[in-house]
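Student: I would love a firmer grasp of how sequence relates to backbone shape in proteins. Thank you; the sequence and its tokens follow:
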Amino acid sequence: MKVIIRNNAKEGGVWAAHYIASKIKEKAAVTDKPFVLGLPTGSTPLNTYAELARMVAAGEVSFKNVITFNMDEYVGLPEEHPESYHSFMHKNLFDHIDEPKENIHILNGNAPDLNAECAAYEQAIVEAGGFDLFMGGIGEDGHIAFNEPFSPLESRTRVVTLTQDTREVNSRFFGGNPEAVPAQAMSVGVATVLSAKEVLILAFGSKKARALASAIEGPMSHYNTVSALQSHPAGIIVCDEAAIGEVKVNSYRYFKAVEAAENR
């Protein structure tokens, strides 16, 4: 596991955007096969999305040969609802980049058969060639996507029931009312994320510190699902000083030293 530490969320988000862009261009230099990218929602990736949009507008990177799959969507929320993840992604990224509409994949939370929709989503990922890179965030309880505590680490895309804690955290987008947050969602599984060639996790702010420390230094556990990144051969965590604050001093020094050595 590699941990990249930046001063604040903006610097971390910009680093992630440039890393993703470099990987897109790296693959484009050797093959015409599309770059397959997994994407999250929420406030954590906003700086990354803003920088990617800027880079596309400046001609520094193109999404014309990129296929994206979002990690989750609420069940029963209309796609046009301002807090649906369809709306979020178009507002914050897709409306500002040159990715073809047919390359954008987001789970349909209103599908007549939700289980069939989940199975089809997994199949579509396979048919696209599998993820080159999956970017995700981390919940305050250590969840990745909507894989709440005690989710199986071998899980795949499925319907999940959201915990009250998650509904309360997300209620800030629903007028502060947890009951307005849908009780269920569709989410890629932990194993879906780990199937990517690279996994890039963003974690910013002191509220993420305890979960991040557990994910880095604690045991791999279905209680903290992002801890499964410990088993991935190419896992990267990008965090700020506030989020890394609970790790041991020597762990912090180690990650800083590794990055410094790689940049020489």
